[in-house]
Each structure stands twice: as structure tokens, then as C-alpha cells.
Amino acid sequence: MLLREYWLNRLSIFCAVLGVLLIGAYSMLESPKNVSIAEINEQNLGEKVRVRGIVSFVRLNDSIAIFGIESNAKIKCVIFNPGIEERIILQKGSIVEVIGKVQRYKGSLEIVVEKVELLD
Amino acid sequence: MIELLTFVLAGCFLGVITGMLPGLHVNNLSLILLLLFPTMPSNIIALIVAMAITHSFFDFLPSIVLGAPDSESYLSVLPGHRFLLKGRAYEALLLTIAGGLFAGVAAIILAPLFVLFLSFAKGILPKIIPFVLIVVLISMVVFSRNIKSSALVVLLSSLLGVFVLRSLSIKNGLMALIIGFFALSTLLISIVRESRIRKQVVAKQAFSLKDSVKGSLLALAGASTIAIMPSIGPSQAAFILSKIFGKIKTQAYLVMLGGINTCNLIFSLFVLYALGKSRTGIALAISSATITAKELLLFCGAFLIAIAFSVLALKAIGSELLKRIHRVSYRKINSAILCSLFAFVFFACGLVGLLSSLVACFIAIYAIANRVRRTNCMAFLMVPTILFYMGL
Prior knowledge:
With 120 residues, chain A is an alpha/beta fold. Chain A is 26% helix and 45% strand.
């Protein structure tokens, strides 16, 4: 039995559609969960979360920014290779919204930040 | 979602570039991205996955088109080149595309079963594979048309492989030898014999479903072998399978070659999720991210989109390139590629690496001149692998 070339095209289009649907499903599951800092626990490991708080401390160098935010609890946050905008936003006392993944580092939970925004 | 899809498409375009340019590899780019984005956000993961899959399709285009020998050495060339000589390079390309597509989709569906199989097999197979390789090595010589020359090629390749890969600390020694055995030799012979490429037939094709299925299954078997045994690469696995399963039709062999690397990439990410082990460069780059079951959706989505893009883009680009290839001076192209490969090997592997590559090249030329299959030169990798698995 012969397989004609157009079957490659048809199967590819089917794969593309299925691929888009899977990416869509992942996006829905990956939307950051709105949590308060006090609610963050072991069960959130690996999850993307959105938290708000006041910057309590900042330590900056060329390749990493470590800062703490607090509202009803405290948590440490990390940004790798921070850009200029992030360096400006991260000042002690700023009210910020942080989106990132919860991970464990040296026994404590922290957030590896993907995005930080200044809130008025 | 739009952002993720954009990164997937960006990865596809990068994969086209890395696939078509010899010497530029997706592993190098992945490690650069790891340095820039140590936490591996999902966008970058999607980009890397798409880039790797697209690369696995597009790297057949330069390998089918480059270094075509003339009709005297027809019997000792790789299958894609044989098709090029007959004016059927487009058919060869389509067979590799079919392999990547069918085997890739099958790999996505069968990956969970594969991970289960891996848990059982990883203790047993490495013990028996050295003996399989020894049998294959002996049969390569015994069943050759020119036993003395074949034995000499196997011996010289083995010695070179052991010397370069185990004794000397040559940076990228494996790459230097592969380029020497299979690229430099072919290019030199093409230049010396003034190869000309005949006009290629670029028309709607049809191929045997049986060959496609057989090749895809062999690709899955080959990818499983690579995943279980770290020192075996896609070419080596394809070679071992062709010896184990006996005579494989050229069409099925091309489908297998097309699918094996794609399947290996897909399996490697499932192995990363299930066992936490990195078997490929991209898995190593992605391993710094937290991989949960959700990320499998991202992987599968990126795989499928990249496979679809690669099939359609490679058919379009390949057909346009092959329609025009007979008009260009092949000698000039081969000379330019030869010079750039010399430079590349020198910078990537150093002077000793370049010398090793040249020695490999001359061994391969000896093989071609004496009607010995160039696959016998694979002894350069098989013997160090045997020694590794035997603990020597």
C-alpha cells in the first residue's frame, strides 16, 4: 500500500492543532495562583503564584537580586540577572506584586521571580 | 498562551538555522540559554524543545545534499547520497521527514510505556550490549567483499577511536572524528572527482506504508537503545539495528534515520521527568527547571507544533533548494564547505583534533578506494564503547 505525500501535510496540520490545544491547556493550568504570603506552604512547591507585599530588604549585585516581601507573613524572593526596571522597582518600602515559582532553597521556601510590578 | 506559541515558533526558526548550518548545534544554543535564564522559565523551555525537534528534521538537508560522490563510488556512500546521485534526493528527504513525523508522534504516545520499560531494562541491557557489538564488529569484517581491507579499516578506525576518545584529552574529539570519517572524506573525493549533481526530480511522491511503519518502529527501538546506553548516539544505534535486523530496504533505513533523533529527544524529556536524568543536551539545559506533570503538556504541545512546522517548512525549503542545486558549481560549494569545516574543527578541537580528523579522513578514503563500506569506520566508536561497558 502506498502512502501519498499529502498525508504528511494532513497529519502535520492535525499535529499542529493538537499541539496548540495542549499549549492552551498548559497555559490555563500554569496561570499564577493568587495567594497571600502566609498561605504559601510545601504544597505550593513548583507552582506559579502571585503575591503582594511590601519590600522589607533588598540585596543587589550584577547577577542576582534577593529581596524580602511581607504582608501577613514574610518570604524571600530571588531574581536572576535583574534588569534595570527591576532594580528601580526594588526599593525598601515599595509595594510590589510578584509572580514566580515557589521553590525550596537551603530548607526555606522562596519565590523565584519571573515578574515584579510596582503597585501604587 | 500567545506568548508561549510565539516562543515555540521562534524555537522552530532557530532550529531551521541550526539544522541547516553544519557545525552549529542546538545543544550549544541550549547551554547558552541556560546561562542567560538559569531558572528556565516555561517560555524558554518551549523555545528549546521546538528548536531541538526542528533541528532534528532540518539537519538531513545538508547531509543529503553535501559531499555527493560520483557513480564510481556509488556502492560505498550513505543512502541519502545514493538517492542524490540518481536524482531522487527529494524522495530521500521526504522519507526522513516521514520518519520524523510518524516516529515522533508514536514516541509521544508510547513515551509513558517506554519510561516503564526503561526502569526494567536499564540494569540488564548494558551487560549484553558489549557482546552484541563484538558480534557486529566481527560480522562487518567477515561478510565484507574485501576482507583484508575491511579488517584493516576496522583496526585503524578502532585504534584511532581508542586513542582519541580514551587516551588523549582532545576537546570535542568525537565531533572531530565524525567530521573526518564522514564529511571531509566525502567532500575531498567529490572535489577530486569533479562530481556533478544531476537534475533532481521534485514531484509529488508516494512511498510504501510498510517501509514507513518498519522504519518508524526501528527508529523507536533505536531511540530506546540510546536512552538506555549513554555512550551510544543516533548514528551508532541506527547502524547496530541495521546489523541486528539484517537487510533493511534503503527506504525503511532512511525513515529510521529520520525518526531516530526525533524520538531520542522526545524520550529524553520524558526520562528527565520520570527519572530526573539528562540524556541529551536539551534535557540537561531544561533540568534546572522544576519539571512536573504539567510540563509534559508543554513538552508535548511544543513537540507537535515543531513537528508540524518542520514537515511543512522542510518540504517547501527542500524542494526549492533541490530544484536549483544542479545549476550551481558543486566543486565550489564543496571547496567552501571543506575550508569552513577545517576552520571549524581547528577552533573547536584544536590542532591535535584537526590532525585526528585528517587521519580519520584518510582512513575513510582508503575504505572508499578499496570498496569497503564506510560504516566499517564506525569501529572508531564501537570499540571504545565495548571497552567502556566491559569496564576496561
